[in-house]
Amino acid sequence: MERAVLEVEALTKRFGALVANDAIDLTVQPGQVVGLLGHNGAGKTTLVSQVVGLSKPDSGSVRVAGMDAIADPAAARRCVALQAQSQAPLDGLTPRAAIEIAGRIRGMSRNDARRAARELADELDIGEWLDRRAMPDGGGLSGGVRRLTAFAMAAVAGVPLIILDEPTNDVDAARRRLLWAAVRRLGDEGAGVLLVTHNVVEAERVVDDLVVLDRGAVVAAGSPSRLRGDRDNELRLELSLTPEGEDPTLPPTDVPMPVTRRVRVGRRVLLTIAPDAAESAVRWAAALRGQGRVEGYSLAR
Ligand SMILES: Nc1ncnc2c1ncn2[C@@H]1O[C@H](COP(=O)(O)OP(=O)(O)OP(=O)(O)O)[C@@H](O)[C@H]1O
């Protein structure tokens, strides 16, 4: 197998007491589109910042195209194109100029950069704004066109690893479809793509693998169909709380099994757990009831 374009191992990053990335393992192969999913604050942007050398991990390793991205961030960065979550600073530029400059910085000839900018504009259907200038007050270009231009800037020159952080924000539905198709094309042409998104439903169609983060840790990883299969088998433990309202699932908790989802509705708490955790879940819930800490419990598919 070809060498992975991104190898993250046991990556840990703390902000004071908060563990923003908790021993994360993640690999992107050439030609593979990997979706990185997670709620707000799950640790996605923290992970991306370390991959591109903007912040240093507390422990763990990051290799980009075989290079140690922690020891030599500048070398690693040459192999990565990043579309950041914040809008790209395009003020005073036209999309055409911005995309061409991004290509030239990556070593493309003037002609190649010009041709690539035109092709990307056609692919994303932003040709009519290609020569319109972005104004500093936010005028000139819509948020969606700015976002698509930033995507084109990341996609223009062939680098081994392309990281897209929420590339569809502000983009209309029709152009989102074009953008997803372009993401798939980048993978099919051999790039490794790490796609950070909240948009699971749309991303699922273009990714090969998904990595799901929750509170800094990887809670699920694999192909979308495998993860869906896992979900079909998941169990739901429901606890009925006492009128006093003690919630034994809140920290400090002695819950003995991994919980992939916790939802509280009134005096009921629903925990989603793996099928092989059924026995320990029932033993724990029965003990809670025995101690009078919950009124009752049930376990269901
Ligand atoms: N510089 C920082 N200092 C302190 N805490 C931080 C810092 N950067 C991030 N955090 C915290 O680390 C956790 C992970 O944040 P991060 O931005 O990586 O999440 P995210 O998954 O990218 O979220 P979102 O989807 O909202 O962008 C959050 O609790 C956040 O408040």
Automatic annotation (TrEMBL):
Q: Does the keyword Transport apply?
A: yes
Q: Which InterPro entries match?
A: AAA+_ATPase (IPR003593), ABC_transporter-like_ATP-bd (IPR003439), ABC_transporter_ATP-binding (IPR050763), P-loop_NTPase (IPR027417)
Q: Which Gene Ontology terms cover its molecular function?
A: ATP binding; ATP hydrolysis activity
User: SMART domains attached here?
Assistant: AAA (SM00382)
Please provide the record's keywords in A-Z order.
Antibiotic resistance, ATP-binding, Nucleotide-binding, Transport
Give a GO biological-process term: response to antibiotic
One Pfam short name: ABC_tran
Q: Which GO terms describe its cellular component?
A: plasma membrane
Q: How does it sit in the membrane?
A: Peripheral membrane protein
Give all residue intervals belonging to the ABC transporter domain.
Answer: 6-240
Tell where it localizes: Cell membrane
> Which PANTHER family does the record associate with it?
ABC TRANSPORTER ATP-BINDING PROTEIN, DOXORUBICIN RESISTANCE ATP-BINDING PROTEIN DRRA
Under which name does UniProt file this protein? ABC transporter ATP-binding protein
Task: Tell me which species this is from.
Answer: Ruicaihuangia caeni
Q: What is the lineage of its organism?
A: Bacteria, Bacillati, Actinomycetota, Actinomycetes, Micrococcales
